[in-house]
Design goal:
Length: about 140
């Protein structure tokens, strides 16, 4: 969903019917986004307000936590992946055990991997290569 584009057009005075045609979305969707922005007193956009940020801000009920899913500390996951013989599969199993103990719903493995990849991409995180580690220790 192009939340940012919809709100930019709306804040620039474009009618909801025209926005509907421009972004190829239903009028009900446009109306819902505009109404949510009004409810949250959002009247202008800043650079850090991406589509993902706007979705989380305008529709917090869509967040995984509100649906009962246990959140993960992706920074911890990334640090653990830097250790020898550690895999995303092992970390997912650990995560599932924690979720069960907290009576939360764990992400499926595929979803877990997708969320980690989004974290890694968003923060441009990369795994250190063995070659670089060897150079550091020499």
């Amino acid at each position: 969903m192009e939340y940012r584009k919809i709100l930019e057009h709306y804040f620039n005075g474009m009618s909801q019917r025209t926005i509907q045609v421009v972004v190829n979305s239903s009028r009900n969707t446009i109306r819902e986004i505009v109404n949510r922005a009004k409810m949250r007193a959002l009247s202008e956009l800043t650079d850090e307000m991406t589509d993902q940020w706007l979705e989380e801000f305008l529709f917090p009920e869509k967040l995984p936590e509100s649906k009962g899913y246990m959140t993960e500390d992706w920074e911890y996951v990334h640090k653990e992946l830097g250790k020898k013989h550690m895999t995303l599969s092992l970390l997912h199993k650990e995560y599932c055990q924690k979720a069960e103990a907290q009576q939360s719903i764990p992400y499926a493995y595929r979803t877990y991997c997708r969320h980690y990849n989004q974290y890694a991409h968003k923060y441009k995180v990369t795994m250190p290569s063995n070659e670089n580690l060897v150079k550091v220790w020499r």
